[in-house]
Amino acid sequence: MTRQTGCFITLEGIDGAGKSTHLGFIRDWLSTHGIAAEFTREPGGTPLGEQIRALLLAVDTEVSLDAETLLMFASRQQLVSSVIRPALQAGRWVVSDRFSDSTFAFQGGGRGVPTERIAVLEDWVQQGLQPDLTLLFDVPLDVASQRMAGSRQLDRFEQEKADFHQRVRSAYLQRAAQDARFRVLDATRSIAQLQQDIAGHLAALLEQR
């Protein structure tokens, strides 16, 4: 395997945490510092992945828990092989709106798929690839619900009941407590405050390279 020379950053959080709001800021920060970067999302990020995304998020999709998990990793494998790994090996940074932590949180924590089964798929698909930095945007459920209310048509995951989203949040926080690559951000604060923190984490990562 060719050695990775770029940096891999992921953004995570429950639905309504507001993580996507900060992608433009991250793009501008990297550009200002002369860093070439690829931006992508999960599920999706490739033509195949976007088709899988549309299927998985559709409110009328009927899918078993195992099939849902496998489809997430099918999209991920295509993204890793055709976008993420080539970019990192070329020295570019990659910023992804969600990655495998989402599967551990949503399918594992939310749906109850055993984490051991997810870990087998993670090992197969990623072959050791992990983010260098994961920004976890954390908010209470009531805040997330208020942000999503009336904003648009909610997708299949966003329409899940509160206890599902609470389990997802708990799974995220548990993973963050066990892995030093996570930075947990209080996403109830102002955009300016959050972006100041994000800039600090990006600067620290840049200094390590």
Describe the fold and architecture.
This protein has a five-stranded parallel beta sheet with strand order 2-3-1-4-5, with helices on both faces. The longest helix has 25 residues. It is 54% helix and 13% strand. The model has no long low-confidence stretch (mean pLDDT 94). The chain has a single domain, classed as P-loop containing nucleotide triphosphate hydrolases (Rossmann fold, 3-Layer(aba) Sandwich), CATH 3.40.50. The protein is of the alpha/beta class and 209 residues long. It contains eight helices and five strands; from the N terminus they run βαβααβααβααβα. Helix 2 packs antiparallel against helix 3, helix 3 packs parallel to helix 5 and helix 4 runs antiparallel to helix 5.
